[in-house]
Hints:
This protein is of the alpha/beta class. 41% of the residues lie in helices and 15% in strands. The chain contains 13 helices and 14 strands. The radius of gyration is 21 Å and the shape is globular. Bound molecules: pyridoxal-5'-phosphate.
Amino acid sequence: MNNKFVYAPGPTDVRENVRLERAKVTTNPDVDEEFVEFYKCTCEKIGKIINTNNSIYILSGEGILGLEAACASITESGDRVLVIDNGIYGRGFKDFVEMYGGEAIYFSGNYDNEINVDELSRFLEKDHNFKYATIVHCDTPTGVLNDLSKICVLLNTYGVLTVVDSVSAMGGEEIRVDDWKIDIALGGSQKAFSAPTGLTFVSVSEKAKKAMENRKSPVRGFYCNLNIWKNYYKDKWFPYTIPISDVMGLDRAVQNILDEGVENVLSRHEKIADATRNAINEYGLELFLDGGYSNTVTALKVPENIGALKLKDHMLKKYNTLIITSLEPYNDIILRIGHMGENARLEKITYALNVIDNGLKDLGFKSDKELVTLFNKYLKD
Length: 381
Ligand SMILES: *Cc1c(COP(=O)(O)O)cnc(C)c1O
């Protein structure tokens, strides 16, 4: 199961020092107060990467838990919630909003471009009576990146709280939680942070905390209730046994980012994404998006006569390489290059591009160019 080359927009490659960290002897995370300090320190390091002084909690469960917990904790029956939708994850927030009794109202954009901020602004002039809005930073099935620096600031001027799914962006794309007024920012261990799957982290602003505390009705459920984390540090108490090895691995992965330097990590992503997009265009393929390109994942259109699913199967069979397509309705249209986290390394992206190049040509695609040669041509120093 483990000998294939896997190159997906999450879970991403996990560096050896992170894997080894999880093998270390642990203490008892329920009763050893040193672990509370360790946990808090990991949270603060994540805060540095996402530029916030807000409280951060690491929850035991992968990214979806964070999304549901945010909606569960602030939604009350009848609350109007603006669901900003230009992708599959964006659209999906409606389910969580409604599950907890909210009324979801869509603001939808085209799925091949970023949210148009002027249009959103005009929409909000007419209707801004929302308790909160949800938005996805990078909608991974298409790789579209939304400009949170404008969108969240705009929503904030109307007093609308913001819940941001940055699971597949943070760690690979800049996110300035405090400057951009993001009330709840959600991340996951297995994407650009390149730690194993299993943890989600949530930053919560003072305003969002107030909204959760001043609810008229209690939060339904326990596991998704963010209020239970409020006093963990003061009380030296966790709501449940924290998967300590997972947190130790995450801490190592976070430290890897800080050791390399957040700026350097972001520019590594940018250079690789930029060269990948340019190479694809000149090679004769089309990108799925018209704009709003994320530096963490690139979606390319596989020629119709080949089909993305056939290409994926062929690459796995002939090259022992798993490069994945997208979700419905794009699963036979899009191939996704997940150059995020530890995948955003030259030796890995060039290997992946070579396999894609060979796979396409095996299946009849005609180009007198080579993807990796083009990638190298466009790669900036
Ligand atoms: C990966 C991802 C999540 C978490 O979902 P998984 O079930 O771990 O795939 C949430 N939001 C986005 C945008 C993601 O890319």
